[in-house]
Structure formats: C-alpha cells, structure tokens
C-alpha cells in the first residue's frame, strides 16, 4: 500500500469522524456536570442572605464554612437535610454568591444524582480553583453504585479529590437513605443498613432544616415583604399556607409572588 493511498484513507477517516467538542469556558462561576461534561451556565438569581428567616443559625454556619473554604482554610463537606421548601438549595446558591461578592473566587458546580459515580472524572476536568460541588435533593434507595461513589469521595479514597473542592449536599432525609431500607439478601442486613446510615456521618457539617411553625412562617413572609416593600395581611398569608397544606419558606415566597403580581409590582 503506497504512502499516497494511506494518506487519502487517513484524510477520509478524519472527514468522517465528528469534530472534537469545543473546550468549555471555565472562567465563569456556575457550572453543571452532566454526561461527563462541565458546562458553564447562567447562575439563577440568588436571594440576599438577609432575607432568609427561620434558618439564621444554618445560614451563618454555612456562610462561615464557605468563607473558610474560599480562603483556603480548613473547611467541611456539608449536608443540609430536612423539610422541603425551607431554603436548603436557595441558601447554598445565596451563600456562594455572597462569598464571591466579597471578593473570593469560588466555582459552584451542580451534579445530578445519576452523575455521582463520575465525580472522579469531574475532578480531573476542573481547573485549579476553589469550588463547591453541589448535589441537590440527593437520596439513595438500592443504587449501591452511586452511594459507594459518594462515600469513597467523602472518605478520601486513593484517587483523591483536589484540595480546593468541598461537597455540599441537600436531602430531605437526614441519613440520605430511608431507615426502613435494608438488603434482604445480605448475610447481615443490619450491617448493610448501619453502613448506609453512616454515610451522613462522613459530612463534617450537618445542618437540619425543620418545618416552620406559624410564627416562623409569618416571620419569613414579613422578611420577604419588607425586602420588596410590600404590605401583607397576616390572616391572608395564613390562609394561603392553609390552602397548600404546608407552612414553609417556599410557600411564603409563593404568597409574596401572589400579592406582588396582584398589585402589579415586579420582584427585582
């Protein structure tokens, strides 16, 4: 086979091959990791930290830990667990935004549950910057692969993560797994269950978020209303929550959206 023929074959194969994916711009602050690709995204609007009510201790603890991490000081992996709609995810985004606004370089990388098993590949793809890897609304049932991948990262396996990376996980379950779950085929199901429940113990900082009582709910509404210069009626706010069968920060914000929209006001 002649050199000319080999060159033509190589050129034909190159034309058939898909072009390489363009390199992602890693100079931004917000990213999504999916399908083994790190993609920059436009960050969602973050609420100012002073509008959070009913979770003051949790807010302050997360902010302090994130500041330490951004300053290259010892900091913990964080688990935010508890009631739905009490601001766990919003608080992570707002704290990251506040720390950046204070002059720190901090990436926020969101990872879906199905991509937990590729965290090692993510770490290889990340630039040498301080970063929070954020897994939202995480829980495990019988999927051992994802569970073990997360445990390995938290334990500090052989393939170590970068020093500049800390994990922040939100979950409605304190232990990330249901207490009633156990592997019926295991030799000792109790050992399997204890091992899974111990996953939460591997986070250095665990912050609980609890259902709002009436006073807390009204305090959240009042904080939002004051921030947006809106008047509200307590009885109407309570009726709104009753109609949704829940009192939470999310329901409080939905009520604020309702009264702002009814008044023809924008929420900037």
Structure description:
With 268 residues, this protein is an alpha/beta fold. The protein folds into two domains: 30-209, P-loop containing nucleotide triphosphate hydrolases (Rossmann fold, 3-Layer(aba) Sandwich), CATH 3.40.50; 214-262. It has nine helices and seven strands; from the N terminus they run H-E-E-H-E-H-E-H-E-H-E-H-E-H-H-H. It has helices at 3-16, 56-70, 88-101, 119-125, 144-155, 189-197, 214-227, 234-244, 249-262, and strands at 30-34, 37-40, 78-82, 107-111, 131-135, 165-171, 205-209. The chain has a seven-stranded mixed beta sheet, with helices on both faces. Strand 5, helix 5 (144-155) and strand 6 form a beta-alpha-beta unit. Helix 2 crosses helix 3 and helix 7 crosses helix 9.
CATH architecture of the largest domain: 3-Layer(aba) Sandwich
Which sequence of strands runs across the widest sheet? 2-1-4-5-6-3-7
Number of strands: 7
Number of helices: 9
- Helices and strands, in order, run as HEEHEHEHEHEHEHHH
Low-pLDDT stretches: 18-22, 181-188
Specify the structural class. Answer: alpha/beta
**CATH evolutionary superfamily of the largest domain:** P-loop containing nucleotide triphosphate hydrolases
Largest sheet: 7 strands, mixed
CATH topology of the largest domain, anyone? Rossmann fold
Q: Residue share in helices?
A: 40-55%
Strand-residue proportion: 5-15%
CATH class type of the largest domain: Alpha Beta
Q: Could you report the average pLDDT, rounded to the nearest whole number?
A: 85
Q: Could you tell me how far the N terminus lies from the C terminus, measured between alpha carbons in angstroms?
A: 70 Å
CA-based gyration radius: 23 Å
Shape: globular
How many independent structural domains? Answer: 2
């Amino acid at each position: 086979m002649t050199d000319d023929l080999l060159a033509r074959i190589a050129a034909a194969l190159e034309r058939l091959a898909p072009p390489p994916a363009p390199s992602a711009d890693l100079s931004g602050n917000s990213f999504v990791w999916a399908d083994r690709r790190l993609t920059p995204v436009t960050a969602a609007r973050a609420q100012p930290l002073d509008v959070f009510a009913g979770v003051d201790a949790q807010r302050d603890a997360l902010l302090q830990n994130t500041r330490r991490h951004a300053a290259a000081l010892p900091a913990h992996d964080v688990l935010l667990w508890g009631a739905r709609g009490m601001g766990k995810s919003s608080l992570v985004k707002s704290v990251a935004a506040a720390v950046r606004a204070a002059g720190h370089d901090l990436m926020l990388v969101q990872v879906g549950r199905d991509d937990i098993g590729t965290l090692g590949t993510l770490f290889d793809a990340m630039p040498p910057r301080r970063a929070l890897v954020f897994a939202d609304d995480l829980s495990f049932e019988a999927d051992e692969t994802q569970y073990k991948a997360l445990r390995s990262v938290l334990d500090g396996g052989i393939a170590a993560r970068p020093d500049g990376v800390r994990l922040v996980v939100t979950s409605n379950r304190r232990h990330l797994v249901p207490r009633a779950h156990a592997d019926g085929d295991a030799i000792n199901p109790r050992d399997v269950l204890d091992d899974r429940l111990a996953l939460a113990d591997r986070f250095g900082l665990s912050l609980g978020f609890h259902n709002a009582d009436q006073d807390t709910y009204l305090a959240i509404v009042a904080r939002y209303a004051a921030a947006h210069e809106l008047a509200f009626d307590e009885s109407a706010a309570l009726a709104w929550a009753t109609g949704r069968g829940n009192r939470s920060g999310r329901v409080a914000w939905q009520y604020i959206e309702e009264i702002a929209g009814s008044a023809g006001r924008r929420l900037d």
